[in-house]
């Protein structure tokens, strides 16, 4: 038996030495010992010649130490932990419930996409592992780690609003875990870029609409509003953009490529065209070649139907 960091162990309380605390081992006989400091003895004080359950970790001097605090994660298991801090040379530090934090190395995140890195307060699904020196580390959970815990999404979820967390990013979208509530941990999902109003971070919590329940029990989601509501919101956003442009014009139209539209407005081309159609129908914009122009007040006056008095004067 080994005194391994990241594990829960039942150990024998061999002796108490003031002002240090207790010394524990595997049974009352000779063998390796671990220190349980007074400050780590939360709850009832241990009694000599009894067995207690402790969690083992490395202290600030790299010594294996015991605590009676209950961790949120143990070696080899997965848990959802909150981001407590970030260090630009090391990575993200996660709250693990024992008054110390678990390091998630920065190298696990795409260096060219810092906009999808977690922020303080985000929640990450991670698995605890060890480095070569036996110290506790975290790694992002993968599909295989979720498999024993997830369930197939019910068809009743279709068109429902569900909460979830982003678990990883892909070239055209993000992988998610959709909160299962009382049913269980959750179901796996995916949100493609065209279904987002803004980029989502790894660990970010979101609320999205289930647009598809697949045969394998996974779901597709969208954080965009329904088409009708989305059309109104998109139109307002595009109109505001044009108004802020020099000369009231933008180099985008229904002839612009889907990639350029997605990159600039985070909209699919079909959603972009619906919004433009609404604005043109209302006489607020006009397209000229590959440009879209704001209709001036004078142009709007010329285009509106003349009243009976105006026709008589003409």
From TrEMBL:
One of its GO terms (molecular function) is nucleic acid binding. It comes from Cohnella herbarum. Belongs to the CvfB family. Residues 159-224 form the S1 motif domain. This is MarR family transcriptional regulator. Residues 295-314 are annotated as: Disordered. PANTHER family: CONSERVED VIRULENCE FACTOR B. Transmembrane segments: none annotated. Residues 302-314 have a biased composition (Basic and acidic residues). Gene3D superfamilies: Nucleic acid-binding proteins, Winged helix-like DNA-binding domain superfamily/Winged helix DNA-binding domain.
């Amino acid at each position: 038996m080994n005194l391994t960091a990241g594990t829960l162990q039942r150990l024998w309380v061999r002796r108490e030495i003031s002002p240090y605390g207790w010394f524990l081992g595997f049974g009352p006989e000779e063998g390796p010992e671990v220190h349980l400091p007074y400050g780590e003895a939360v709850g009832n004080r241990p009694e000599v010649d009894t067995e207690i359950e402790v969690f083992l970790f490395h202290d600030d001097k790299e010594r294996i130490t015991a605590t009676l605090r209950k961790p949120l994660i143990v070696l080899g298991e997965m848990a959802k932990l909150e981001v407590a801090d970030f260090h630009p040379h090391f990575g993200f530090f996660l709250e693990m419930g024992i008054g110390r934090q678990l390091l998630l190395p920065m190298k696990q995140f795409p260096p060219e996409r810092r906009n999808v890195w977690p922020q303080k307060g985000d929640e990450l699904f991670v698995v605890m592992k060890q480095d070569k020196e036996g110290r506790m580390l975290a790694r992002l959970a993968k599909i295989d780690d979720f498999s024993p815990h997830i369930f197939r999404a019910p068809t009743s979820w279709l068109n429902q609003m569900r909460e979830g967390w982003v678990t990883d990013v892909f070239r055209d979208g993000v992988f998610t875990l959709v909160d299962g509530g009382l049913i269980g941990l959750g179901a796996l999902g995916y949100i493609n870029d065209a279904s987002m109003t803004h980029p989502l971070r790894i660990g970010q919590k979101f609320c999205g609409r289930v647009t598809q329940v697949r045969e394998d029990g996974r779901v597709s989601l969208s954080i965009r509003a329904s088409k009708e509501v989305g059309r109104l919101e998109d139109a307002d956003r595009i109109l505001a953009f044009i108004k802020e442009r020099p000369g009231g014009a933008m180099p985008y139209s229904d002839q612009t490529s889907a990639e350029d539209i997605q990159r600039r407005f985070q909209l699919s081309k079909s959603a972009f065209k619906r919004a433009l159609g609404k604005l043109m129908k209302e006489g607020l914009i006009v397209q000229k070649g590959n440009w879209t122009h704001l209709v001036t007040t004078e142009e709007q006056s010329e285009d509106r139907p003349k009243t009976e008095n105006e026709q008589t004067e003409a």
